Amino acid sequence: MGAASDALHRLVRDVPDYPEPGIVFKDITPLLSDPAGFAAVVDGLAAAGRDGEGRVVVDKVVGMEARGFIVGAPVALALGVGFVPVRKAGKLPGPTHAVSYALEYGEATLEVHCDAVAPGERVLLVDDVLATGGTVAATRELIAACGGETVGVAVLMELSFLPGRETAGDVPVTALAVV
């Protein structure tokens, strides 16, 4: 994870007081525009979907809206598995499962297609930042509602001063950088 961590520290910028006063937003757009840095973080996140011998141990990668889409889709490709988007309420056509939860600075509802994850499928959740853990907990509920099993969480950055890791329970969490 050395190259991934280096890229994150070099290419992610802090934006104070966004989206509201007191919040420091982690802007990943400079990372996305750097092909070597972006490739390093995709490789680092994909490692969470492999065992010690490098074998893929997940059936799907689930990315949470919106930056989880940006990093999750290439992770799914790197692993050779399908990608499942978890969206904000009202954004998916067809039957969905929904879960409402608290954010660091508000509330939200997430949805997933009822047939996006088959019963028994093993999934890796991928997102940009692990903060309070509300998004991870809500997404785990959605995967369980489909009959799937969350076997790992992989994020670019974990905010160490917030309790996000605790919400993952016994599911392993891989953070490429802890800030």
Plain-language structure description:
There is one protein chain. The protein has one domain: 3-Layer(aba) Sandwich (Rossmann fold), CATH 3.40.50.2020. 29% of the residues lie in helices and 34% in strands. The chain has helices spanning 2-11, 29-32, 35-46, 67-79, 134-146, and strands spanning 13-16, 24-27, 60-64, 82-88, 96-103, 106-113, 122-130, 149-158, 173-178. The strands form 2 sheets. A 7-stranded mixed sheet has the order 5-6-4-3-7-8-9, with helices on both faces. A two-stranded antiparallel sheet has the order 1-2. Strand 5 (96-103) and strand 6 (106-113) form a beta hairpin.
Short description:
The chain has 179 residues and is an alpha/beta fold. The protein contains 5 helices and 9 strands; from the N terminus they run αββααβαββββαββ.
Question: What structural category characterises the helix and strand content?
Answer: alpha/beta
- Mean pLDDT across the residues is 94
Biggest pleated sheet: 7 strands, mixed
How many helices? The count is 5
The CATH architecture category equals 3-Layer(aba) Sandwich
Distance between the termini: 15 Å
Shape designation: globular
| Strand arrangement, major sheet | 5-6-4-3-7-8-9
CATH topology: Rossmann fold
Order of helices and strands: HEEHHEHEEEEHEE
Indicate the percent of residues in helices.
25-40%
Calculate Rg over CA atoms: 15 Å
List low-confidence stretches: none
The domain tally reads 1
The number of strands is 9
CATH first level: which class?
Answer: Alpha Beta
Strand content: 25-35%
